[in-house]
């Protein structure tokens, strides 16, 4: 780490929260965390106390069991993938980790201490940043303005209080470069970047504002193969910076490329829990797709239609 | 990809390879500046008197009366909202000031002060109604536009018995207030109306706020992506209310000029001006959908209006053509802006 890599804690980090925001909106303000990371060892904490630990956590909405006894461990420098089909409970899990909902049963530990996050802001304060699919970016604004939106550093006082444009530009460039993104021009509107690059900027922003645990909600869902590769590289870069990453996805191919640990969800319950060495991509895909269910589906489709080359896909 | 070549260049100044021309082309003001140059050249050729100092002073004055409002209206549009009540709000502000002073036989500064508070209250009303209800600003300000139009006429008739207010020219404080809002300074043979100074001040403050303060960042953000802005902690409601207050402030300055320039106020004035302000802002590069534009562009848009309205007179054309020229210019400028922006984005 070189000195210029730490130009943060601008005067403006203490942006007051808008009292009017709902919890849901609060959650995505990954840029707004005061950097709490200073006294936390960031790098390579693969052993020792996990950053985040869910032990048999459950969540019920009325009489609906959204999540039933799900366990999950997030360590610094490791990527934990949460896999599951639609309705498997992925969103509920994200909401609990992001502080949008409290869990009903089980134990939620941050740095080994039992906790129950009351708000997204509290989640951010302990260093959990969530990057949602919409990314919370303004397409027409330049990259550097987006990077600091809501937490702009300023210099000067009174009527002369102004944006620290130089710091904003150089920090944005450095942070992106560190993530391996070499932008030609931080002045270009962020809407002109590709989907993968935008996702990368969102990740870089969360890292810059002090995230220790990065929760990514389907970061590759809307992207082509090449763009997905770009994003997965950033995930690896965040991991290499010592962050614990929770990658939520329904794509086993992407998960298998970067994951150190795989948690499979099905209908709100754990359907599998594997370390990277223990499971092959084929097996992961099979479990993810629901093995026997898929075979049954193939069987059903074959009877309904004339056999085609990919009727059992 | 020339990215490798560029990253070899000094790492802080990788911006250099981007040609100055391309930077210029990506400015929102470009279309309006080109338009202003064209209009200037046309009238410089066809109207003999156009280039005389006195004529240019008149042009600047006409531009400033529109520009004082076009600049805050542009900021509001960048923030993603409209204000259709902006035109009649000017008249309301002047009427309030005049009537308070006259009816209470008070010093005119009392009227000026009450008018400031009342006009800001109208802006606040627009802003709060907008942020609380979530209704489109078009509807809300159309409502206040109609209400203010009625109130202006109704109250004036009720209080003074005619459609205009009584002259306040002989009241205490009038000369000083007139000096502030409706005097002119002579620089050699060049007479500059004080409104031009107000206008320039407005441009400077608006540009500073827009480009160099957190509030400016928030204005672009609430106009270009409200939900995203809210998600990262931008106070969306406060920003929008602030923009409506800015328009009200402009209306107050314009209104006081109107009053102290003519001593009396015609209660039916101002209707239709709101569209001229919006047109000036759009000529200046503001997107109707918000999130893009500039204060300087809006000021140049106002300058185009000033040049056209006075240039037609100097060229001794039938002034009835004025509106046609404005309409044509609005379309041309919008198309030019669109074309420039497409090119700017394509050539990145």
From TrEMBL, chain A:
One Pfam family linked to the record: ABC_tran
Keywords: ATP-binding, Nucleotide-binding
Spans annotated as Disordered: 1-45, 292-313
Domain ABC transporter: start-end pairs: 52-292
PROSITE patterns assigned to the protein according to its UniProt record, in alphabetical order: ABC_TRANSPORTER_2
Keyword Nucleotide-binding belongs to the record: yes
Classification via InterPro entries: AAA+_ATPase (IPR003593), ABC_carbohydrate_import_ATPase (IPR050107), ABC_transporter-like_ATP-bd (IPR003439), P-loop_NTPase (IPR027417)
GO molecular function annotation: ATP binding; ATP hydrolysis activity
Lineage: superkingdom: Bacteria
This protein's record includes keyword Nuclease: no
Identification of the protein by name: Sugar ABC transporter ATP-binding protein
UniProtKB/TrEMBL annotation, chain B:
UniProt subcellular location: Cell membrane
InterPro entries: ABC_transp_permease
Primary localization class, coarse: membrane
Entry's transmembrane regions: 30-51, 58-78, 109-129, 135-155, 190-211, 241-263, 275-308, 320-340
Any one GO MF annotation of this record: transmembrane transporter activity
Domain of life: Bacteria
CC per GO annotation: plasma membrane
Bilayer topology: Multi-pass membrane protein
Record's keyword terms, sorted: Cell inner membrane, Cell membrane, Membrane, Sugar transport, Transmembrane, Transmembrane helix, Transport
CDD domains for this protein: TM_PBP1_transp_AraH_like (cd06579)
Main function: Part of the binding-protein-dependent transport system for D-xylose. Probably responsible for the translocation of the substrate across the membrane.
Protein name: Xylose transport system permease protein XylH
Source organism of this protein record: Streptomyces lonarensis
Species lineage: Bacteria, Bacillati, Actinomycetota, Actinomycetes, Kitasatosporales
């Amino acid at each position: 780490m070189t000195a210029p890599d730490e130009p943060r804690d601008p005067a403006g980090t203490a942006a007051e929260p808008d009292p009017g925001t709902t919890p849901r909106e609060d959650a995505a303000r990954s840029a707004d965390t005061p950097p709490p990371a200073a006294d936390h060892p960031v790098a390579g904490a693969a052993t020792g106390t996990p950053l985040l630990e869910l032990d048999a956590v459950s969540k019920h909405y009325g009489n609906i069991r959204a999540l039933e006894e799900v366990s999950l461990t997030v360590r610094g420098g490791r990527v934990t993938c949460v896999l599951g089909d639609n309705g498997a409970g992925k969103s509920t899990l994200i909401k609990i980790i992001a502080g949008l909902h409290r869990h009903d049963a089980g134990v939620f530990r941050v740095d080994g201490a039992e906790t129950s996050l009351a708000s997204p802001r509290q989640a951010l304060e302990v260093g959990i940043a969530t990057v949602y699919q919409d990314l919370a970016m303004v397409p027409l604004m330049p990259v550097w303005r987006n990077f600091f939106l809501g937490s702009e550093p300023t210099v000067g006082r009174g009527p002369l209080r102004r944006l620290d444009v130089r710091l904003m530009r150089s920090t944005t460039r450095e942070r992106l470069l560190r993530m391996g993104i070499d932008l030609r021009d931080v002045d270009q509107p962020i809407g002109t970047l590709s989907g993968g690059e935008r996702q990368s900027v969102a990740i870089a922003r969360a890292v810059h504002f002090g995230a220790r645990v990065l929760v990514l909600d389907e970061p590759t869902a809307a992207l082509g193969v090449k763009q997905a590769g770009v994003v997965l590289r950033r995930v690896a870069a965040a991991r290499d910076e010592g962050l614990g990453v929770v990658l939520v996805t329904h794509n086993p191919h992407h998960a298998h490329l970067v994951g150190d640990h795989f948690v499979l969800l099905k209908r709100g319950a754990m359907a599998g829990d594997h370390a990277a060495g223990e499971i092959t991509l084929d097996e992961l895909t099979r479990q993810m797709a629901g093995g026997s269910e898929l075979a049954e589906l193939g069987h059903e489709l074959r009877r309904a239609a004339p056999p085609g080359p990919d009727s059992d896909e | 990809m020339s990215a490798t070549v560029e990253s070899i260049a000094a790492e802080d100044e990788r911006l250099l390879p981007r040609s100055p021309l391309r930077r210029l082309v990506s400015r929102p003001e470009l279309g309006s500046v080109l338009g202003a140059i064209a209009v200037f050249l046309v009238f410089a050729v066809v109207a003999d008197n156009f280039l005389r100092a006195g004529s240019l002073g008149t042009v600047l004055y006409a531009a400033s009366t529109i520009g004082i409002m076009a600049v805050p209206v542009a900021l509001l549009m960048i923030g993603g909202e409209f204000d259709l009540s902006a035109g009649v709000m000017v008249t309301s502000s002047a009427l309030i000031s005049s009537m308070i002073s006259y009816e209470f036989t008070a010093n005119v500064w009392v009227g000026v002060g009450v008018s400031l508070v009342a006009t800001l209250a109208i802006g606040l009303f627009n802003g709060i109604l907008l942020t609380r209800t979530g209704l489109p600003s078009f509807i809300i300000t159309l409502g206040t536009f109609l209400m203010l139009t009625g109130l202006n006429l109704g109250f004036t008739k009720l209080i003074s018995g005619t459609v205009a207010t009584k002259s306040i020219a002989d009241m205490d404080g009038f000369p000083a207030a007139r000096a502030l809002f409706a005097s002119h300074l002579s620089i050699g043979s060049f007479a500059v109306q004080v409104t031009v100074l107000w206008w320039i001040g407005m441009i400077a403050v608006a540009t500073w706020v827009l480009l160099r303060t957190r509030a400016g960042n928030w204005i672009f953000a609430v106009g270009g992506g409200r939900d995203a802005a809210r998600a990262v902690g931008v106070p969306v409601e406060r920003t929008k209310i602030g923009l409506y207050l800015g328009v009200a402030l402009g209306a107050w300055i314009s209104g006081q000029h109107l009053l102290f320039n003519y001593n009396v106020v015609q209660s039916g004035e101002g209707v239709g001006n709101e569209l001229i302000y919006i047109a000036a802002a759009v000529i200046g590069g503001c997107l109707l959908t918000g999130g893009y534009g500039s204060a300087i562009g809006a000021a140049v848009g106002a300058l185009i209006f000033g040049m056209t309205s006075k240039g037609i007179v100097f060229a001794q054309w039938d002034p009835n053509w004025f509106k046609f020229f404005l309409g044509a210019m609005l379309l041309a400028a919008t198309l030019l802006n669109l074309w420039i922006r497409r090119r700017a984005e394509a050539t990145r």
